[in-house]
Amino acid sequence: MTDRTHEVLVIGGGVAGLVLALEVADHRRVTLLRPASDDQGASRWAQGGIAAVLSPQDDIEAHVADTLVAGDGLCDELAVRFTVEQGPSAIEWLLSLGVPFTPDASADASYPYHLTREGGHGARRIIHADDATGRAVVETLKQHVEAHPNIGLCGDLTAIGLIADSTGFCRGARCLDADGRLHELLAEDTVLASGGASGLYRHTTSPQPASGEGMMMAAELGAELMNLEFQQFHPTCLYDPEGPAFLVSEAVRGEGGLLINTAGERFMPAVDARAELAPRDIVARAIDAEMQRTGSDHVFLDIRHLGETAIRHHFPTIHAHCASRGLDIVHQPIPVVPAAHYSCGGITTDLGGATTIPRLHAIGEVACTGLHGANRMASNSLLECLVYARSCARRLHTAETAPVAELTPALWGQQPVSLKSIEDIREAMRQLMSARVAIVRTDQGLEEAARGLAQLHDRLAPRVRDAAPSVPLANLWHALRLARLTVACARARRESRGLHFNPDCPVHGDKTPQPSRVHLQALKAM
Question: Active-site residues: which are they?
Answer without folding.
Answer: 280
